[in-house]
Write a sequence for this structure.
């Protein structure tokens, strides 16, 4: 819950109450420090509720590696310019699925070789973050509901499962 990015000042997650939201940093310097719970779950676990059960805005730091440098250090890979229609299949394992879109490129020997067809993917957020090789410059990404600032990521072994007709 990054207050600089903007999010609703009030938690609307329950029908009979309103709570003020607070800034919330679950991960600090790559280490999970605390979890966020909704009010009912926190009460059951005798914890103080913090933020939304699912953060509505977030910021991820980066290292400043350019996308060109990431491509130059890739023997064989895929440049994904955008992901779409992402949904969480299993919140406990953070397993997500969705599609690539707006440009997908084959990388060979440190150079963009040619465009390729879009893919459907299925992977865990935790698995992808465990496989990060390089981080780019954090950039604000537009999303109408969840404003975010994230770096480009070079991830090994990302799980593409099928070709897609998505554009």
């Amino acid at each position: 819950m990054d207050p600089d990015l903007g999010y609703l000042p009030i938690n609307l997650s329950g029908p009979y109450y309103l709570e003020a939201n607070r800034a919330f940093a679950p991960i600090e310097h790559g280490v999970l420090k605390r979890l966020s719970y909704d009010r009912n779950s926190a009460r059951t676990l005798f914890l103080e509720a913090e933020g939304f059960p699912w953060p509505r805005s977030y910021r991820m730091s980066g290292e400043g590696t350019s996308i060109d440098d990431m491509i130059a250090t890739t023997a064989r890979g895929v440049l994904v310019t955008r992901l779409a229609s992402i949904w969480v299949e299993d919140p406990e394992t953070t397993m997500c699925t969705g599609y690539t879109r707006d440009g997908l490129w084959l990388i060979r020997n440190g150079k963009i070789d040619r465009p390729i067809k879009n893919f459907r993917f299925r992977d865990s957020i935790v698995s992808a973050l465990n496989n990060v090789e390089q981080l780019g410059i954090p950039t604000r990404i537009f999303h109408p509901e969840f404003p975010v600032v994230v770096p480009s990521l070079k991830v090994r072994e990302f799980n593409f499962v099928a070709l897609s007709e998505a554009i």
